[in-house]
Design brief:
Its EC number is 4.2.3.4. With 355 residues, the chain is α/β, with parallel strands linked by helices. Helices cover 46% and strands 17% of the residues.
C-alpha cells in the first residue's frame, strides 16, 4: 500500500513503514528514544516492533496499565516523572506503541513535555489504526468525561502494521469496525454498502478496507484540521456514544464498554434522530440499525439510565454557548453538522433502540 500524506506528516503501512521509520531515526539526531506501551502491548507487540528497529539510540520502555480507566492526568504525571528521571530532553523521540489509549495519552505526554518533543504513533488495534492515531488529536479523560483535556498536535509519522491485529480478541476487532462503518455512513455510501453483508465480505482484502477508512478520515481532517467545520462530521455517533461510554465507565454496577461498542449504539441513536429530523428515510434508518445490530450486542439501558446520560451531553466538546450540537446524517454518505436536538427526540431514540 502506498503511503498517505496527512496534514503535516506521512502515514506508512506494513513492512515498508519500518524502512521509513529507521530512515527517520538515522536522519534526525535524537538524544534518546522512549517507547510508551501499556501492559498488553508490552507483552504482545513490543518484541515484534523492536525486531524491526535499526538504531544505536538508547531505548527506554515506559509501561502503564492497560485500559481506559488509566487514560488520565495521573498517568501522564507518572510518565513525565519517568522521562525526567531517565534524562529525556528536547531532542528526545517518543514512540507510542498501542491502541487508542496509548496513542492519545502518549501523544499528549509528548506534546506537553518540555513544551513538546517529537513523537510517532504505531497503532496496534483496529480502532487506533482507522481513527485514534490519525488526525493529531491527543489527550486524556477528566474523571469519566472522555477526552476533555488535550491538544491538537501531529506526530512525525504514523506507522500502521496490520500484523498487530493478530493479537486482538474479537470484541476489540468489532470495536474498530464501528469507526469504519461510521466513515462510510458520513462520507462514502459505496464503502458503507460493502459492510451490509458481512458473510459475503472478503476479509482477505481487509488491509484495503483499513486503507480506505484511513483515507476518508484523512480527507476530512485535511479540510479542517482544528475542527471548526467539516471535521465535526467525524463525531457522528459520538455525542450520545461518548455519553453512554462515560456513564458506563463511571457506574460500578455497569459493565465497562469498549469505545466501538458505545459508538455503535450512538450511531443507531443518532440515525434515529436523523430520521426524526427528516434527514434520512425510514428505510435508510432500518438498514443502519439492522446492520449495526447484526455486529454488536445490544447495550441494556434501564429507565433510570437515560436522565444522567442526557445530562452528560452538556460536556460534549462540540457544544457552543451551552447548546448541544450533533453531527447527523443527511442521507447515507453525507452529514449535517451543528444540529440542535431536543431531549424528547433523544428519549424516543433510546426507546426505539431498545425495541
Amino acid at each position: 500500500m502506498t503511503s498517505i500524506q496527512a496534514n503535516g506528516y506521512p502515514i506508512y503501512f506494513n513492512e515498508k513503514g519500518y524502512e521509513f521509520l529507521n530512515l527517520h531515526l538515522k536522519e534526525n539526531k535524537y538524544s534518546n528514544l522512549f517507547i510508551i506501551v501499556d501492559s498488553r502491548t508490552n507483552e504482545l507487540c513490543l518484541p515484534q516492533f523492536l525486531g524491526y528497529l535499526e538504531t544505536e539510540l538508547i531505548i527506554e520502555i515506559i509501561e502503564f496499565d492497560a485500559g481506559e480507566a488509566n487514560k488520565n492526568i495521573e498517568t501522564c504525571i507518572q510518565i513525565w516523572k519517568v522521562l525526567t528521571e531517565l534524562g529525556a530532553d528536547r531532542k528526545t523521540l517518543i514512540i507510542n506503541l498501542g491502541g487508542g489509549v496509548v496513542t492519545d495519552l502518549g501523544g499528549f505526554v509528548a506534546s506537553t513535555f518540555k513544551r513538546g518533543v517529537d513523537f510517532i504513533n504505531v497503532p496496534t488495534t483496529l480502532l487506533a489504526m482507522v481513527d485514534a492515531s490519525v488526525g493529531g488529536k491527543n489527550g486524556v479523560d477528566l474523571g469519566n468525561l472522555k477526552n476533555q483535556i488535550g491538544v491538537i498536535n501531529v506526530p512525525k509519522m504514523v506507522l500502521i502494521d496490520t500484523n498487530y491485529l493478530e493479537t486482538l480478541p474479537k470484541n476489540e476487532m468489532r470495536s474498530g469496525l464501528a469507526e469504519m462503518l461510521k466513515h462510510g455512513l458520513i462520507y462514502d455510501k459505496n464503502e458503507w454498502e460493502k459492510f451490509l453483508d458481512l458473510k459475503g465480505l472478503d476479509f482477505a482484502d481487509f488491509d484495503g478496507f483499513i486503507y480506505r477508512s484511513v483515507s476518508i478520515k484523512n480527507e476530512i481532517v485535511i479540510q479542517d484540521p482544528t475542527e471548526k467545520n467539516i471535521r465535526k462530521a467525524l463525531n457522528f455517533g459520538h455525542t450520545l456514544g461518548h455519553a453512554v461510554e462515560s456513564y458506563f465507565l463511571e457506574h460500578e454496577n455497569k459493565t465497562t464498554l469498549l469505545h466501538g461498542e458505545a459508538i455503535a449504539a450512538g450511531m443507531i441513536l443518532e440515525s434515529f434522530i436523523s430520521k426524526g429530523k427528516n434527514l434520512i428515510t425510514t428505510a435508510e434508518y432500518l438498514q443502519i440499525k439492522s446492520t449495526i445490530k447484526s455486529i454488536f450486542e445490544d447495550i441494556q439501558f434501564e429507565e433510570n439510565d437515560l436522565k444522567p446520560i442526557i445530562e452528560l451531553l452538556i460536556h460534549d466538546k462540540k457544544n457552543e454557548y451551552g447548546s448541544i450540537q450533533f453531527a447527523l446524517l443527511d442521507g447515507i454518505g453525507k452529514i449535517k453538522i451543528n444540529q440542535e436536538v431536543d431531549n424528547q427526540l433523544i428519549e424516543k431514540a433510546f426507546e426505539d433502540y431498545k425495541s
